[in-house]
Amino acid sequence: MATDILKKTILLIVFCLVQVLVCNQIHLFGYATPLIYVYFVILFQRNYPKWAILLWSFSLGLLIDVFSNIPGVAAGAMTFLAFLQPYILKPFIPRDSIDDLKPSFANLGIMKFSGYTLICVVIYCLTFFSLEAFSFFNWQQWLSNIGASAALTFLIILIIENVRYRQ
Question: Is residue 29 over pLDDT 90?
Answer without folding.
Answer: no
